[in-house]
Amino acid sequence: MARESLVGNVAQDLGLSPSQLAARKARVVSEGSEQHFRLDPHSGVLTLTETLDRERICPHSESCALLFQLFFENPVQLIRGEVEVRDVNDHSPVFPEKEMILEILETASIGSRFPLEAARDKDVGINGLQNYSLSPNSHFSLAPEKGENGDKYAELVLQRPLDREEQREVHLVLTATDGGSPPRSGTAQVRVVVLDANDNVPVFSREVYEVRVAENSPPGQLVVRVSAADPDEGSNGKVRYTFPQVSSGSKQLFTLNPENGEIRVLGNLDYEEAKSHKLIARATDGGGLYAHCKVHVEVLDVNDNAPEIALSSVSASIPEDAPPRTVVALLSVRDRDSGDNGRTECAI
């Protein structure tokens, strides 16, 4: 909805006439630094002060609500309001990279699965990412998957043996589609490079590493050490570690030592922005064989946010015969921390 669009008529909702609204000196106060709404005190109509963008206002939440306060000065009264911002299908699914390169051994067995980078759609609900499809080919099918946090991704499933001497590369097109009407879609090229065989594939000590780290952990702190063994000799048994696919946000937060598999904190973790991170580590030997493991990092909350006090109104003066419980000021308090760290007590 564009600027100046009608949100509602608060005078009608409250059963007040426009003259009563003006006489009581009604005004709107938004909760937060941005003022999203404007009140016409002569009609009671509530309008937008700017064009809304749900993805900017609520980037990490499927539900989106804007809170405001309707304040009356005479007599003093405060009414809380909530405006739900509903999503429209104005974004297409987008892959992090336009081309994905997979290196697959020619001796890979039928049914082997290979995870693909997930597309991202800023829209939510039915307007968000719904499914993936793969261009027709004779070697691979596509299996949809869903992560623990609800993200949808896909894996290539090998249906027919590869032969490097017959075909060195397989070129595919991966399409991500949302559920809007009409639907929007995005594509990425998938280039499968067929590798010559070597005897043994690196094997991780665990398929899934689950660790916890406090959000105030300093850069350089060890998160976990992933370890893979390869019984081959020489370069074919030497393992190097990499992040084959990681979101841009996680890439700025963690670093992986290619020699010893140590994952350390790189940037500033923030529990309020992301409570957990899903990483995939790859171990590759000198012959090009590789294996994957999953690393689930749970971020622990610490009390790193101070309570914020917003003063909505304060009386300039009060008569000396004002009775007890006369309202002098109105304020609200919020704390971005969770649990006990986010609970507040007020005192004078």
TrEMBL record:
Location(s), subcellular: Membrane
PROSITE patterns (alphabetical): CADHERIN_1, CADHERIN_2
SMART domains assigned: CA
Topology class, membrane: Single-pass membrane protein
Residue intervals of the Cadherin domain: 37-95, 96-204, 205-309
Gene Ontology CC annotations of this record: plasma membrane
Keywords: Calcium, Cell adhesion, Glycoprotein, Membrane, Repeat, Signal, Transmembrane, Transmembrane helix
One term of GO molecular function: calcium ion binding
Pfam families: Cadherin, Cadherin_2
Main localization (coarse): membrane
Highest rank taxon of the organism: Eukaryota
One of the protein's GO biological processes: homophilic cell adhesion via plasma membrane adhesion molecules
InterPro entries given in the database record: Cadherin-like_dom, Cadherin-like_sf, Cadherin_CS, Cadherin_N, Protocadherin/Cadherin-CA
Protein name: Cadherin domain-containing protein
Organism: Bambusicola thoracicus
